[in-house]
Please model this.
Amino acid sequence: MALILRQAHPLLWLASAVVLAFLILPSVIVIGMSFSGSRFLEFPPRALSLRWYAAYWSDRAWLNATLRSLQIGGLVTVIAVTLGTLASLAVSRRTLRGRGALRALIVSPLVVPSIVFALGLYSVFATWRLTGTMTGLVAAHTVLALPFVLLNVGAALYKLDPSLERAARISGAGPVRAFLFVVLPVIWPGIASGSIFAFLTSFDEIVIAMFVAGSSPTLPKVMFEGIQFELNPIVAAVSTQLILVSTVALLTVEWLRRRIAQRIETDYTTQETAP
Amino acid sequence: MTGRPLRQWLVLAGPSVLLLLGVYLYPLAKLVVLSLGAPPGLATYGRLLHNDLFLTVLVRTFRISAVVTVICLVAAYPVATLLTRVSTRVAALVTIAVLLPFWTSILVRTYAWMVLLQHNGLVNKLLVGLGIVANPLRLMYNEAGVTIGMVQILLPFAILPIYASLQNIDERLHLAAQILGAGSWQRFWKVTFPLSLPGVAAAAILVFVQGLGYFVTPALLGGSRVITLAMLMESQVLEVLNWPLASAMAMVLLVICVGIVASFERVLGLERVWR
Amino acid sequence: MSRVLVEVRHVSKRYGAVSAVDDVSLDIYEGEFLTLLGPSGSGKTTALMLIAGFEELTAGEILIRGRSIAALPPEKRDIGMVFQNYALFPHLRVFDNVAFPLRMRGAARSEIAQRVRESLRAVRLEGFEQRLPRQLSGGQQQRVALARALVYRPSILLMDEPLAALDKKLREQMQVELKAIQRELGVSTLYVTHDQKEALALSDRIAVMKAGRLVQVGAPIDLYDRPADRFTAEFVGEANLIEGLVTAVGDRLVHVRVGERLDVAAEPCGDVTVGRRVGLMIRPEAVEARERPEGTPNEWPGVVREVVFLGDLVRCVVRIGDSVSLKVVRQYQKDEVTPKVGQTVTVAAPPRRWTILPSP
Model:
C-alpha cells in the first residue's frame, strides 16, 4: 500500500513481541489450564481432561447464571440496537438542531466510572424496587450499550451517501419505507457490529451486576464470587469458553468492517471509459 | 429532509433520551443529592477532605493509575510503531493480537493474572526455576500485582490511539525529511514523535481515567491490602451503609474523570478508538 | 403555447440571517428544458431542493398544475430526480433500482416488468437488468438513474448537476443523449448546473441565479446576445466589458464615450439618457482585427498585445488607445495571416453587436 515501507528494526520487533506476548499469554495459559486433569490448575497440564467443562455444564448454579446473562444480553441487544439506531438517524441529520448534544448525552456513559453509575443505580433501584429484577439490569446495561451502537451505526450512516435516502423518498417511499428498503440494507454491517458490542457489553458487565443483580446473579457475578476467595478451576473452563465467544465476535466485527470498506470502494468508483 | 424537526426529535431521540433520563441522569443526580446530605450542604465534602483514609486511598488510586499509564504508554508505542511498518497481512494479525484481550472480559483477564501471579503460580515458578530469584516474589495482594493486571487490561486502549495518530502522519513527511538529510533516529524524534503526541495524549487520558475508576482488578488482585477509591466506595455503601460519604466520593471521582476528559476533548475524539 | 406546469412564486429560503434563495419567481412550462445556471452558492441547488420537498420554504409558494405542494412530502409530489452521484441503490440490481418507484406505488408485477423494460430501452440499457450498480461505468449509472426517475412518468424531472462527475468527453456525449431523451419523452425538466456551455447546449430556457436571486431568464441566444447585467454577460460566455458616458441618443444609434477619446456607437436598448454611465458589452467573436480600415462605423486603430493559438480558434487581445483592451476571437483559417504581437491593426466592432448594460 505505501510506496516505501520503512523497515522494522529488529529491536522494534523484539520490544513489540515482548509486549504482545504479555498481552496474549495470560489468556493462552488460562485456556491451557482449563484442560488440566488434576484438581489444581497447572500449566502445562500434566493430564488433559475435560472435567472442568463437565463440571460447568452440570452445575445448575453456573448454567442458570449463564442463561440469565444470555437473556439479559439478548434483551439489551434488541433494545439498544433499536434505540441506538433511531438516535443515530437523528444525530446523522445534518440539519437537526441539538444533534451534537444528543450525541454527547448518549456517549457520555463511557466517561462515567462504572462504580459511580452502579452506586447511583443501587440507590435508585432500591426505591423503585428494581434490585434483582431483569428490568433494572436490562435498563442499566442498555445505557452502557447505547454508546457503542451509536458509534457503530453512526459511522455507517456517516459514510452513507445522503442522496440515497433522498432518491428513495422522491421515488415514492415515505420516511419509514425509505429507511427499511434503502438505508437499512446498506448500513446493516454497522448495526450488526453495534449489536455485537452491545451484547458483549452486557454479557461481560460485572460492576453494576454486583450491586443490582440481587439473588439471580449473572454469569460475571458468579465468576467473581468464584475467584474472590478461592481460584475455582471451573472458572478456567468458563473463561476459555468466553474467550472463544470473544474471538468469534471480534473476527465477525473485523469481517464486517472489511465488508463496509470494500463496499464503499467499489460503489463509488466510476469507470469513465465507456459511456 | 422534511418532517418537522420536533417530530423527528420525538420519534428518533425520544426513547433514548427517556431511558437516559430515568436510568442514568436521575441516579447520578440522586447521588449528588445524597452527597449534599440533609439539610443540604457541603459538610460531607468537608469531612471527606479531612478524612485520612480517603486521602490515602485517593493518592494511592492516582499513583497506581499514573504508574499504569506510564507503563502502558512505553509498552504501547513500539507495538503501534510496528503496526505502521509491516505489511497489511502482518498488521492484521498483530491487530487481532491486540484486540483479542481487548474483547475478552475483564474478569477473565484478571482471573488469568490471579492464576499466574499467585505464590506458586506460573510466573514465580518461572522466576525461581530460571534462577532469577531465590524465593518466590510476592506478586499478588499488593500494588505490584494490581499494576501488572491493570497494565495488561488497559494496554489496548493505549495502543489504538497511538497507532491511529501514527497512521495519520503523512508518509511524505518522512520522505521529505529523508531527502533533507535526516537519519532514522532524527526522523523519529523530529517528525514522527511530535506528530504522534495527540495520539499519545489521547492514550494517556483514556488509560488514566479508566484506571482511576477500576474496581474489579484491584479488588481481586489486591484483595483487602490495596484499596482503591472504587473499593472504598463499595465498602462504604455495602458494609458501612454511609451513603452520604460514598456519594460524595462518587462525585469527586466523577468530577475528576469528566473534568480530565472534557479538558482534553479535542485531543480525544472518542470515535477514533473504535475505528 | 405550452401551459405552465410549475409556478414558483416569491420563494425564499433563509437559514438564520443568510438567504440561500431570495424572492425567486419563475414559471416552468410543460415539455420545456429549463436550466438553473449559476456559480456555487448561487442558490440553484437549494431552489431545486425546495421544489423537490427536501427543504422547507421560508416564504412564498410552489404550485404544480395549480395546486400548492408546500404541504406535500417529497414522495407525494410526483417528481422525478437525478442526483449528482447517481444515488443508485447499491444493494439492488438495475432492474430493481428502476422498478423501485413502481413498487412503492403498488404497481402490478406485469406492469412493472413492462415499464422497466421500456425505461431501460429509452436510455439504451436493455440487457443490463441483472447488473449491480458497482458493475456499471459512470455514464451507465447515470442512465439507470435517469431510467429510474422517469419510469413512473412524473410531472417534472429535476436534475442536480447530473453530469458533473463525468469527464469532459463523456459529459458532452451524455448531454446529447439527455437532450434527445428529453425531447422524445417530452418531459418537463429543471436542470441545475454551473457549467454555462452545458446550459447553452441543453436548454430551451436558462434562468441565471446569483447570490440567491434570479438575475435573468430567457432562451440561450437571448442571454448570450442581450445579457441583463455584467454578471450574466461574463457568466454565459466570454465578454468584453467596458464602461462609458452616454453622449447622444438618436433613433438608430446611441453614442457612448469611453475613456478620453473613444466613441462607440451602439443600437439602443432599454432606456438610456444622455449623461448616464452605462456598461458596454461585446462578444469577442463579434470583434474583428483588420489589416486596413474599411470605413464601417466603430473602427479604431489598435495594437495587438497577445496572441494565443488554440487549434480551432485564434485569440488576441488588442489595445485601443490608452485604456481599452478588447478580446478578439476568430476561427483559425489556414490561409489567413494570424496577427502578431505588436502589430498595428484596425479594430472593427459593429454597433448592432454591442449590448448596453444598465449599470457599469
In short: The two ends of chain C are 36 Å apart (CA to CA). The interface with chain B takes residues 53-56, 73-74 of chain C (CB under 8 Å). Chain C is about 25% helix and 35% strand.
